[in-house]
Amino acid sequence: MTSQPQPRRTRAVRIVLGVCTVALLACAGLAGWNLRAAGLYNQATATLTATLRDAAAADSDIKQLLAQQQQTDAQLAEAQQASMLLLPSVRAAIAHNSQVSGALTERLQQQVDATTQSTPQATTGDSTTNSQGGEPALTDEQREQIEQMLRNNEQTQESQDQAVQHDGERHSGTDTSGGDAKPW
Questions:
Q1: pLDDT 10s digits, 16-30
Q2: Per the record, where are the segments of Basic and acidic residues compositional bias (predicted)?
Q3: How far is CA 54 from the centre of its chain?
């Protein structure tokens, strides 16, 4: 008769262990979510700091800074997802940087809008204009030289790739078909 109560105790222990396991898995999930949010926060903070530093420089490209800042805003918004699951310190830090980032994005957008309104050629979508003054960043001669260098670089790269392929075929020694060798 003493053998009957033991299985009940074993069953109770298993139930308690199962509940504890579920609770620990939930805690691990929350910890993982907080680590993910903290990682996104760290990346966004580094980008925000760099953008603030670059925005203070006189020769910065406002449009590029705005694009970077919009990405930073997106990272911070992603880090704030399910903020109820985040630790209060992580939630507060993300919220503070989101406010700073939003203000910087708004300021950069105003500068881009002011530059666009003052220079009509900036609205044409010409990627060779300088966002600061609407002046061409490259002259036609410089643009032609760059295009020529790019064409030469492509040709050189293709010839190097072909030489490597032919060199590999000579060293492989597995070509028994004679003239039917394929370049790949």
A1: 999 999 999 999 999
A2: 164-173
A3: 19
